[in-house]
Amino acid sequence: xxxxxxxxxxxxxxxxxxxxxxxxxxxxxxxxxxxxxxxxxxxxxxxxxxxxxxxxxxxxxxxxxxxxxxxxxxxxxxxxxxxxxxxxxxxxxxxxxxxxxxxxxxxxxxxxxxxxxxxxxxxxxxxxxxxxxxx
Length: 135
Known about the structure:
This protein starts with a helix and ends with a helix. It has six helices and no strands. It has one domain. The chain is elongated. It is mainly alpha-helical. The longest helix is centred in the last third of the chain and has 27 residues, at 82-108. Helix 1 packs across helix 4 (57-76) and helix 5 packs antiparallel against helix 6 (115-134).
């Protein structure tokens, strides 16, 4: 019995994800961070004048879209790596901006509880640099 065409595509997508597992993890992580920020409408609180901009739902949706796009581009496994590279750059920018915002919250707002998320975003940024080297 001949396997269905969509099954072979699914196997190819899963193989691409397995072969580029770190890149897929970066995309999934950025997407989940976006979802988390979208759920927590008041995560950023300092500086008070920027609260609305930092907690903007549009940014959260962009984070989710960039992360999911990287996962899908990784699964598609195109020989042209341009899209994956640009998405990795966007993920690096996202993690760097989040890191900076969380460090500012920790220092200027006296909120050391932001340290663990800042550490996580710094590690995510380093992972992206590592993955980008191979992309």
